Amino acid sequence: MLPMSLVSRLLMALALVQPAAQGEFVPVTPGTATEQLPAGPLVIAAYAIIWVAMMFYLWTIWRRLNKVETDMHALERRKHTK
Amino acid sequence: MRRLFMPLLVVATAMFAYAPYMIDGAAYESSMGLVQKIFYFHAPSGMMMLLSAIVCGVASALYLWRRKPAMDHLALASAELTVLYGLIVIATGPLWARKAWGIWWDWDARLTMSFVGWLIAISYLFVRKYAGPGSDKLGAALAVFGMANVPFIYLSVNLWRTLHPKTSVVPSLPPLIRGPFWFSALALFLMYLLLLTARLHLERQRAALDALYLAEED
Amino acid sequence: MFVSTALLVLKKDFAIEVRSREILYTTLLFALSCVLIFSIAFVKEGEPLLDAAAGILWIAVEFAGTLALGKTFERERYGETLRALLLAPAPRAAIYAGKMLGVVVLLAIAEVLLVPLVALLFHAPLFAQPLLLVALLAAGTLGFSIVGTLFAAMLVRARSRDVMLPILLYPMTVPVMIAGVRGTSALLQSPADTATAVMWIGLLTSLDVVFMTIALWTFEPLMTE
Description:
The complex is a heterotrimer of chains A (82), B (218) and C (225). By secondary structure, chain A is an all-alpha fold.
């Protein structure tokens, strides 16, 4: 459930950051003229970005390593069959 | 190094997963409120970026003079990590700036210089991939110049007027904030060591494979 | 020994250049076309934008310099003469210094043409503080040439060197460019902000020292096969 709520909060943040196209002019309600950008989703997004970036990088290393090791095994097998 | 990998993985991820709880308990900054919490990841990531740029530069200088392949591997691995942490810095910074300054990006000195440092690390990887024979030395010279850039990135906020907070912020942190800050810095540093170990292992395996191919041809 | 070797390399490059004047003319023409291109972007309704002149001047120098750097070593590569030059019983760093001085002289000639042109075409009071402007241009050009000559020399043997030179050179020379542009635009204000300009000249000089140290130090191992 946690990831789902996280995703929805992220989407909410995005929606707030990029306002949807408006059909008509909406006058500002008095007293709320300051920008109301929620900080929570921004903080969560920053934390998520770090996790995703590091895990993605670790995954690319793992993938590249697998490829190298496959090549190594193939080479050794070829040596044995010779 | 290989035996270090699993314990590092466990400790680093556990610390990094626990960091939000500590940060949640830390005091709020007066004018920025909740969004200031990004600072706990952003600033240490910046430190890691500069650190890996320095490691890359020193390893490259040693490689230029001693010609030890191990130094070349270290330089390549830390260049990739400079790009990774630079990406984190450049991605988390605007999230904070949007709330604190009202804009995503500003061409002030610190941002520009960090962007330049990041670009140099990218061009290092570019050279290593596409410059063909001799690219190891070419990249090494580039990394040494990139390292010369690091003090300018660090001092840029003190040298001229910018929007970005100054370097005096971190030493002046109150004790209640200092704890969580250095905790997440340590978590990110362990992550850095973890990724560096993994990347070095990959590079060594690659070198071993190349040696095998060469032996095969003979 | 060091100085005489450097001057000898400089003299050799000059002797070749004087005969064809190819690099000089192409660089000057390229600098002119840069100024023309910028006039499209930075002139609005016949009036040049404020502060545009400083940026135009420096970017024209940087672009023309990149072209000149590529050309200088292209010539050495064609004649296979770089190897012969490096085999000479002389300190390698001196050969580098001679090459670098050649680039500085070439860019200085280009600047002699560019500065009045930019001042004239973009209504910029560039001659209000001639000494400070000369100091800025000298320190900036030196910094650019130090990095540029080293990279161009390294790239002589590399693959896709034409693309590589700007990609490596521009990020590396951004600090020099920032200092040059900010310093020049401080001079262009009325009254000229000399204190700021002097600060940028100081920064440029320290950059020059750092770059020069690294370049002299890395040229030897870089050029060893």
